[in-house]
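Why run this: before we spend reagent on co-expression, it is cheaper to look at a predicted model of the complex and decide which construct boundaries make sense. The entries below are exactly what would go into the expression plan.
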Amino acid sequence: MHPVTTVHYLALSAALLLIGTVGVLTRRNIVVILMSIELILNAVNINLIAFSHAWHNVGGQVFAIFVITDAVAEAAVGLGILIALFRNKETVQADEIDLLKW
Amino acid sequence: MELILFLVFAGIAVVAAINVVVQRHPISSAVSLIAVMGSLAVLYLLLGAEFIAAAQVIVYAGAIMVLFVFVIMLLNAGGETKAGRSFVASLLGVPVLVALLALLAFFTARIYPRDTEVHFGGFRGGTAQSVGRALFTTYLLPFEITSILILIAIVGAIVLARKELE
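The model came back. Tokens follow.
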């Protein structure tokens, strides 16, 4: 049977990265945009852990922990900004928030 | 066996990730995102990263998704209306995306110098013991700086979400 190699995991990571980028670019609901950013950060984690396995080095997994921590901090601050925004504008659609548009 | 497990869970992850992007209602996207996180945790187990797999389930599927669902319910965000897409974008979007992915995978496979096979149990350095030892010796300074980052995030989230005092 054909073996699973590191490149398989890298391809999966590239797929998740592209899907997440499409979500950030095309969706207008800010909550879904934040979820797509989580998808992108998970794609990074797959890369780190696949390379950690390939080189038998635990450093990649430590960096994956740092990426998870960053994702949590980003989600907390992002949703806090969203709540403050909703209190002022009564909307979560990104294209309706045009205060700075001339 | 490993190929079957990889294909099944990678397939679930990709399909659920596409579902996150195409669903109209944010709750459906949130549930699909939990499916992505769960199948990625299984893939981390296949790569020998037991601690990261457990952290993935606890932190992502537990904490972050509860936060997302809480905010969706709090803001009562309904489904979004379809935006008027340009004809060229709707026609060329998916083929160009698939072509980009194929190019990326092709050049990754060409460039990557020594393609190592992934065997379950081929790397045993992912236990909580070895990850913790690396975290508290080699990577101690980044770990401490991360605690400052979390402190800033806590203060920032409270300041942003707090009601303005009149």
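The first helix of chain B runs from residue 2 to 22. The CA atoms of residues 5 and 138 of chain B lie 34 Å apart. Bring this page to Monday's planning discussion.
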